[in-house]
Amino acid sequence: MWRAASRLGAAVGPGRQPTRALAMSPWPFSATPRDYSVPNESWSREMRRLFDHYSCLCDTEEQQQSAGWCKFPSYNRSLKHAAGGKYLSKMVQAKARLFTRNIEEPGAGFEYAVFLNKQEKTSVTIFQPGHLLEGPPGHLHGGAIATIIDSSTGTLAGALLGPSMTANLNINYRSPIPLGNVVLIHCKVDQTEGRKTFMSCQITSSDGDKLHTEATGLFLSINLGRLFGA
Ligand SMILES: CCCCCCCCCCCCCCCC(=O)SCCNC(=O)CCNC(=O)[C@H](O)C(C)(C)COP(=O)(O)OP(=O)(O)OC[C@H]1O[C@@H](n2cnc3c(N)ncnc32)[C@H](O)[C@@H]1OP(=O)(O)O
Are 127 and 183 in contact (CB under 8 A)? Predict the structure, then answer.
């Protein structure tokens, strides 16, 4: 019994050891999911500066209404975002983890936070790529770039449309991204046609001077049940 609970407890989140209370609990998940998109010790000064900058836009309800900005929390599993528990029982024993949040060491993988502006249908992701995401020597892997683009555009699509999936992603890699350098990922909705939402996205250096990547994507809103064979 303890071993089973301990295994589930160990799956709660990076850096978290199963506690005695958790091991004894019949419910394996933390009641208050951890938001991973907050500063940790690996964040550079520039990452913190940008986080503070965008957080300030979200600070008060009044500011949110005028500027429309809010920070989107980021958990380490998708189902934490889904409303209701209808499908949870099929997933509850799985060790599924969100791809961008499955490296436990702070700063080694994807360090990022997504800020949304629902009124303008835009988002900004601040992103600090870690050393485990290497592609060319000292630089970010193209697949990791695609991942953070997919996650950023997918988060904006999800916030605006509800459940949706990437149908198409086109990426132009313009200049390599050094590991550890903080970059900005600007996403926007270009057009919506029924279930289809067309997005575009740019990755730039944090001062906006250097263009690293450009992308377009198509998202289709879906019935979540389809994913579970309903
Ligand atoms: C689930 C959320 C939970 C909440 C969690 C929140 C977590 C928040 C943080 C994480 C954020 C991460 C975000 C990651 C997002 C992914 O990475 S999703 C994973 C990668 N994507 C996939 O695996 C999708 C695989 N493809 C499919 O399942 C299906 O093809 C699709 C995309 C659902 C579409 O199938 P369908 O619904 O049957 O649509 P279909 O009838 O084929 O086409 C509808 C229309 O779209 C057009 N269309 C379809 N595909 C295409 C295409 N590729 N190109 C152009 N047009 C197309 C069709 O031509 C058609 O057009 P019209 O004739 O209506 O004009």
Answer: yes
